[in-house]
Design a protein that fits this description.
heterodimer, A: Alpha-Beta Plaits, 4-stranded mixed beta sheet, 28% helix, B: alpha/beta, Dimethylsulfoxide Reductase, domain 2, Rossmann fold, 5-stranded parallel beta sheet
Chain lengths: 257, 791
Amino acid sequence: MPDKNGTRMEKALLIDSFKCTACRGCMVACKQWNHLPAESTGLSGSYENPPSLSPSTLTRILFQEIGTGEDLKWIFRKEQCLHCSQAACLALCPSNAIFQNRYGFVEVKAERCIGCGICQKFCPFKIVRVNQRTHKAVKCTFCVDRIEQGLTPACVKTCPTGALRFGDRQRVLIQARQATADSKNGPRYLYGDRECGGLHVLYLLPEPPSTLGLPENPRIPNPFEAYAFLKDCSWPSSLRDKVLALAEEKYFRHRRG
Amino acid sequence: MTNHWIDIGNSDCILIIGSNAAENHPVSFKWVTQAREKGATLICVDPRFTRTAAKADLYAGLRSGTDIAFVGGMIRYVLDHDLYHREYVAEYTNASFLIDPRYQGPAELNGLFSGYDPLERRYDKTTWGYQYDPAGLPKRDKTLTDPQCVFQLLKKHFARYDPETVCRITGTSRGQFEKICRVYGATGKPGKAGTILYAMGTTQHTNGTQNVRTYAILQLLLGNMGLAGGGINALRGENNVQGSTDSGLLYDLLPGYLKVPLQSDASLAAYLERVTPKTKDPLSANWWSNYPKYMVSLLKAWYGPAATENNDFGFHYLPKPSPANYSHIALFEAMAAGRIKGLFCWGQNPVVGGPNADLELEALKRLDWLAVADLWETETAGFWKAPGVDPAGIKTEVFLLPAAASFEKEGSVSNSGRWVQWRYQAVSPPGQAKSDGEMISRLILQLKALYAQEKGPASESVRMLHWPYGAHPDLEKVAREINGFDLKTGKLLSGFAQLREDGTTASGNWIYCGSFTEEGNMMVRCGLKDPTGLGLYPQWSWSWPLNRRILYNRASVDLLGRPWDNERPVISWDRAMGKWQGDVPDGGYPPLAVDPEKSKGPFIMQADGVGHLFGPGLGDGPFPESYEPWESPIRNILSAVQYNPVSILWPSERGRQGSARRYPIVATTYRVTEHWQTGGMTRNLPWLNELMPEMFLELSEELGREKGISNGDRVLVESARGRIQALAIVTRRLRPFVIDGKVIHQVGLPWHWGYAGLSKGARANTLTSHMGDANTSIPEYKAFLCNIRKV
């Protein structure tokens, strides 16, 4: 995506699971920068916590135990919005509250969000959450406020091992592809190169992505399914007609056009 | 650390044992990761599959408390397969030294060394010495074949540590054990460097010091000491614990690792005679022969004008403890017995962090007064309102001094790599909180006023202290005193070679001499030049001693001063210039083959100038011998001696050892990334509590099935000292060990929780014992017995 001077601005984050030690500094840094409160949690047989993403937890480290005995692997993967090039949330948002900025990041414009939840329902990675108190969709902002000031995202800034690499998407992609060629520590799988038109958060993984719970062919659902979801929502009558009209316009006329 | 953090990135092979660096030193993995990127192999040896194990190329499990068997087996493997660095071993270690023919080891004496006194539980070390020629020089055989030479005795000692026996003791799979021996042993090749990273998993055992000794022996055999990417690297658990040890925080040491005088030291001369090592060997620098200079300069710093030649420079003002052991366990045993009446508890929380924590809580009840300096009201400060305690029944008067946090005060911090860095105050402390410096200054000034009218030696100890810095000390002035100055000119000294024993110099800590010179405060420096390209950054902060970044670096070169490793030369002898290039050399003497007259051995802190494969200095043997922990599920396989024969049996433990019949499960304690120490700071931070919300017990799936325990169940954990409840994490990351044909389970507990703070939970140290290491008395937190059941 060229900026006003015609230069490419597309940025990306590479999450290298090989280098991640699950110190979770990124999770705390995210809360600190974004002024997000701690959740009240308990342990449930794993170090993983909080149990899922939420309006106050925009990123998590997943702890996955794979294999047994001497073949045991403990894999750490940072979960967050992957900022798709072809984003289901953006494509389906009836109020056009979601847009892609000049860096390629997918942003939510809170003032336009009507809290319908279609983004949460159809995110292929199950990332977006609607805050049930404010009725606004919430997800990782890629710290765009920091990027604008020439800083890296808070999570990247705090990562001690270099497991999070931020930069121009093309360059990050080249580094990631080079890394997959290094087989010293076993195979490395790259995820996000092509999925959803190319993600702006890429993974280097020690196991096939599907083994770690990432969808093999993430897709944008068909508009009829999305429309049916909106129709079933319990809208205040004043809003219902407006939302459905917007959705019809966006899903069907736009497509035909 | 003999080396430093950045240097880990230079290594070819990183062995992490007794440390969970990824979790407890997260930033260390910046350098570990860097080394791995360059092709280094990471080995992790741990009872649990930790976050460090998750990153390792090779992982081996071992039963808690069997480190000597494991590393002893590695030593045997290196000897058997000729993987040792022969020239290094012959020239730079005491391998060639001949030992007293009366010396006998555990192979002959069924687990003991010669000279054992079973009643006193200690060794007479007379037979552990070298043989000397008529000129008083140690006899050597550089062919290493004499049956009485250290190398042959070492071989004989570790001959019993064959892979089969080792794995019977440790429970490690033999294939994995031998693979680790092979891979790490490959660093013995000149041009290769292996490093060992360790922490409290190594030291907190009744055999803790000897655990470290096994690393020293292994690293000397492989020629890894002094090299970039080599060394023995203790990862310190607090940001300034290195600084506090340097400054004499331990009960038996004064600043700069000078020994605390004993009651038997009737005069300064008698003390110096006892502690100053002597040698007739012209090849030994014997650096400690400078002891008198350092001690007198310390006395001059402490007592100022009151320290004169006529009064032994104030030597008599120093307290001379009796009994000599005032380690943590000893202090609490004395409090429990009512012998100690008052306690200053400075940034420490023994009710959570101390061993046998219930006993330590009981001990506090017997005090007249307790003063706690901390950021929050910790469990220790609030012991009188612990669950089940009736405050009405407690007479101890408790004072809580609110303390400034690290960013609220100025001063120096010494990291694990001995880099002393200056830290500025970022914000003012809240409310009445004060810096430690101010608290101590006000305390000593008040004490001086109170003792002003009193006579006698006890009052002199306080009255004569020289503290010209007032109640709000300027810390740069204090740092100047620690560095030291010439008392005649008032000029700051630039290194400890300038210290004198005639009372004309003062220095608060000889190893810090050079940290604050006439050129300014060296600790504030931020220079980014790296001339060697090895990450030494000689102009970044300041490193003791003398800004040397890698200790024993003169062992990194051959007898001509040429680096063993040409890719990563730490120092090299410049023939044309007639001096060393690179890091600050560990003693500037020329190489042996260049100038045999002026040359000295590379291990200058040893009286014989060489690294000690045979180490007669310790109380429990010149070679490490594998014994079981104080509490163990099995009989010692190697000998009839069950546990360390020199460990002190404190009254609270006599006859109260937990038996394997009642407590068949091995337990260990540890920390997690998300909390720190007793949680005084971290359990008051909601963001961290969210990540690690409660006290837990980790156990294997096999033990879970046996005991009917599932993930999330509440479990009762019981030892011979007490019982606690925790939430079960049943995981594949813990596995039962097959020890000598028997299935032995191991569980693990974090020790962060207590009854104060925002996140509350049971105290793991309710379960641990008052047994400690034979040399240092550090408690055996890392291996004890317990039993568990579902609540």
